[in-house]
Predict the 3D structure of the following.
Amino acid sequence: MAGSATAVEPAQVPLHLDEVERAQPRRPRVLLIGTAFAAAGSMAVFVGLLGIYLSVRSQVLAAGEAWLPAGANIPLSPGNMSMVTLVMSLVTVQWAVHAGTHRDRSHAYMAMGLTLLFGVAHITQMAFLWTEWGVALNGADTTAQAVLLFTILGLQVAMTGGALIFLVLMLLRSLGGQFTGPDAEGLSAAALYWWTTVAVFSVLWYAILIVK
Amino acid sequence: MTVTDTDAPSQVTSDTVPALTPPEPATGFAALLGTSDHTTIGRLYIGTSFVFLFVAVVTGMLLSIERIDVSGIDVLDADVVAQLFSVFRISSVFLFLVPLLLGLALCVVPRQVGSPTVAFPRAAAASYWTYLIGGGIILASVIADGGPGGGDPDAVALFVAATIMVLVALGLAAVCVATTGLALRTEGMSVRRTPLFTWANVVAAGLWILTLPVLAGILLLAYVDLRYGPTLIGSGDQLFLRMAWVWSQPSNYVFVIPVLGIIADISSVAARTRFTQHRLAMGCIGAFAVFSFGVWAMPSWAPTTDGDLLLAYTDEVPFVVASFLVVVPLLALAGLVAGTLRRGAARLISPLVWALAALVMLLAGAANGALVSIDPLDLVNTTATTAQIHYVLGAGLLGALGGLVYWSPVIFRRAFPELASTGLAGLGLVGTVLLCLPDLISGFVGQLARLGGAPGDASSGEVDAIEAFNLVSTIGAAVLALVAVGFLGLLVRTVAGKDEVVDPWEGNTLEWATSDDLPEIMSEAPVYDARHAAEVAS
């Protein structure tokens, strides 16, 4: 087979990652847009519930009564700690997205792990708050305040749980090779929902736990 | 000899290792259960919505018959009236109209934007099964003495939980539809070139995503209250009143936004031309959506059992402004429809009759709503408010059925018989007018909404007039029931038919493309462009 095209030039392998032509992100960003809609729906629930909370509260105050029932007290520390924890989680979740976009897996996993840790810490802090605030859902002792407080903050904790599951799913898909590099859409979507979760809590933290 | 040198693989023969064959595709119910095909899911939504339509028809007829005689509750048990009201409203809006429109959207929107599938197909499938199960539990809970005003607290709580399930399911389907319309558009189809049905669905789904969760949040409060109280809402009339804002104006317009897209798409195809001022029509649909967003019009949360709570916000300026402004984009769109029909070579196809009937009823509903908002007329909490709700629901019914007739060749590959379909559309228009107009007139006489009867100071002549109007309204309800039964018969006959139909209307948009290769998209009507380019070339 002399003279046939057997002498193939070796492929030019780039020595540095900077020399690699970066692939364009996958379009369209379906997951990100879908998550944006889901986040809008989640926020709508809380806007409605908070409106009801403030409306009922203003009516009680207008009647000259105290908002919180006798024996109830909302301590500041758990709520403040939760807020600080969630603000820190915003940094780590963006760290995860940045690392995922740049194919830095170890940093992406570390950042995602920290975010999960902060999320779980928020849930435990809220559970602690519920044992401390002297408001109970307990048959004849149940008050309108208890119904509102437990429903709104409980739903926010459930939303946090959902956001954590979303983060874990995207982490697993990243481990499997999906949604890394320019296609870090999954991580971005999970981060978007996480930001929404934190934004919702920040409003509830001020309107319910600080203002009382 | 290393381990890798063993010739063990050579000892494996086709006799010892079973051939790798793909699993047999599931058939029957298993195939339905596992489907993620958008057309199948859409068909399931459409079929199931008709089951719930008959629940709405039966409960609506019962309530209509009950109120002919305004002297009191004599046909039904007084205890079940509130339950029947809630079943009627929920089944007509959340179990019939919205699911039917979502079913249409799931079938048509992906094709209109040139996508082979809907966004998140498994989520769309999950939404259908959740809707089906939730709807079934709603009915079961009412049978078990649940629902607003029910006697069994557990059944009432079950009703509330099931309604939340349905709302979540519809919200999920709305996310799928909106994402498809925005993110899965094919190359060349910019947002400005989006077909009007898709555009209307994106707008509607966006508003449903903002409206339904608010109602779900209220129901969650009600659920916690029922389980651990009750101290805030309870299980009685308050529960119904806390839900009532969503099917009162202006919120009820939100549920018929896709009908505007149906009307626009049908009218341009019936006229064999493009839609006049496509972008202006998109603006009209968007403006209608803005003025129909009515979460803010939730009644006050003052602890009261006053029946006026139903529309306690009606003396607010934003309510009056929104009630009038919502008419403007509707009128503008009606003008564009008329312009399109005049400019083209209009033909009277049956979907056009449905569409025009829906447009007229929607205009009537919006005008009725504007009248209700005029405080000196004192129409709030009278049957004039009921008439507005029924006009809008009637428009939704006519528009959705018209859409089903129009896209039947896309969804089922079959076409409805033209004459029968046209007749039903006309009958539907007559039935809706007979149902609503007497209510509007008796509202001026002062008849109270929700079986409230005649006003206390009514003369015997006024009571007689109100009862006569109620009789006519009941006849209208019966006509609409007849239309529903007749349409279902036509639908079954059409789907079971043998003659396959591809494009009987000469459609304009991508769902009517007969070739696998999509035409180049240069405008909002690519199939129309391709057909006319071929005609010019020949």
Observations:
- The longest helix of chain A spans residues 30-62.
- Chain A touches chain B through 33 residues (CB under 8 Å).
- Confidence is low (pLDDT under 50) at residues 1-5 of chain A.
